[in-house]
Amino acid sequence: MKLYGIQKMTLLDFPGVVSCTLFLGGCDFRCPFCHNFELIDGTAQPVMDEDELIEFLKGRKALLDGVAITGGEPLLHKDILNLITRIRAEGYKVKVDTNGYHPDRLKEILDSGLVDYIAMDIKNSPEKYAETCGLETIDLDKIKQSISLLMNGGTDYEFRTTVIGEFHEDADFDKMGEMIRGARRYFLQRFTDRDSVPYGNLTAPSFDDMKKYAEIAKKYVPDTQLRGVE
């Protein structure tokens, strides 16, 4: 498997774990607010392969405790479990980010017992889900299956929503809350713009709006927190 980026150390991407972050290419969504669209549209070039990654990890054991795998969409790759297995063999904890659209592969990695933490995106309320993912239609049953797998499994997890002024309003957080009612934890993270975002003129909600949305979500997930909000 080709790797399209690596952040060599982070304290933010894997809760409570000093880790590096790997970026895999490809995604089946086309979210207009994506920060890593160069991994989706094919303009990014690989920076290393699996063997080079393992050599890097062998030399970082005194500094790192974990590896966060993101993208793109990691579960798009059929051989993701092989990559996770190799990382775990070096003694590292593993976190995987996912859009939740591959429940069969999610179940496979959960059943393996090799993943320590999953972060799944909840994009929007059901009526707006496809639009928010940049698609004409979407199979929401796949999203619901992934939610159920996480909420009924033994692996630690979080749900998270990137909140965009043009895409989200009060009612959406009631509907998303219903989708994940009783979840372990839920993070609302405010959209921030950057050059690689494919759709221009998107804006971040105000701090007051973020607090209001969090209060709505807390009716369904008591441990709802804001992330990346000053």
Architecture overview:
This protein is an alpha/beta fold. Helices cover 29% and strands 21% of the residues. It has helices at 50-58, 80-89, 103-112, 129-132, 140-151, 170-179, 207-217; strands spanning 2-3, 5-10, 19-23, 48-49, 66-70, 93-98, 117-121, 156-163, 186-190, 224-227. An eight-stranded mixed β-sheet has the order 2-3-5-6-7-8-9-10, covered by helices on one side. Helix 3 (103-112) runs parallel beside helix 5. The model has no long low-confidence stretch (mean pLDDT 93).
- Based on helices, strands and strand pairing, what is the structural class? alpha/beta
Percent of residues in β-strands? 15-25%
| Radius of gyration (Å) | 17 Å
What are the secondary-structure elements, in order, as H or E? EEEEHEHEHEHHEHEHE
Continuous helix count: 7
Helix content: 25-40%
